[in-house]
Amino acid sequence: MTGPFLSRRRFLIVWLGGLLAFGVAIWLHQPLAVEGVPDGIMAHQRAGSAERVDEIHRAWSAADVYRTAFTAMVSDLAFIAIYTLGSLLGGFYFLTGGAGSLRTLGAVLVFAALVFGATDFTETWLQLDQLMAGAGDDRQAAIAAAMYWPKVGSFLACLLLPIIGLVLERRTA
Q: Residue 12 needs a FRET pair 20 to 30 A away by CA distance; which of 38, 65, 90, 125 works?
């Protein structure tokens, strides 16, 4: 690899940092699984309507975890930024430094990282906006819910493709 910004080491540090941030975010989201909302944050992500968002907010208030929800969602934004950047670095690393299937993998990883960042930022920002407003919004809830599956698919791609790329890179070295 050439250039000080795009290196295997930097990609791995940022990508693994993103996975660590994911672990922290999961830990911060755990208290949100309360009576009436056993799926915790995932219920909020998939709520789809203002009515359901409001039910979730009431349950979180009753369980005294409403402020925790704010902290958890902000931590999610930090995770999204780090993981997206790490995945982009990995994609560009394989795209510019590899050949054949590694280049293809790199291009797909760049695409997956862009989809992940766009969908998860959108979903989380809309959730946070509803949380700060103290009320659900049908349009925001529907858009956030629509982001869920593309986010999950692209997250998994950003998890698996770097591992596959590292294995392929090692085999060709």
A: 125
Whether 156 contacts 162, CB under 8 Å: no
CA atoms lying within 13 Å on the CB side of residue 53: 25
Q: Which residues of 75-99 are buried (b: 16+ CB within 10 A; e: fewer)?
A: bbeebbebbbbbbbbbbbbbbebbe
- Per-residue DSSP letters for 140-163? HHHHHHHHHHHHHHHHHHHHHHHH
CA separation for the pair 163, 77 (Å, rounded): 24
Is pTM beyond 0.90 here? yes
Write the pLDDT tens digit of every residue in 142-171: 999 999 999 999 999 999 999 999 999 888
Number of neighbouring beta carbons within 10 Å of residue 109:
27
| Tokens representing residue 64 in the block | 């005294």
C-alpha span between 150 and 173 (Å, rounded): 34
Name residue 39's amino acid: D
48 sits in the region (left: phi over 0; alpha: psi -120 to 50; else beta) called left
Structure tokens at 120: 């998860």
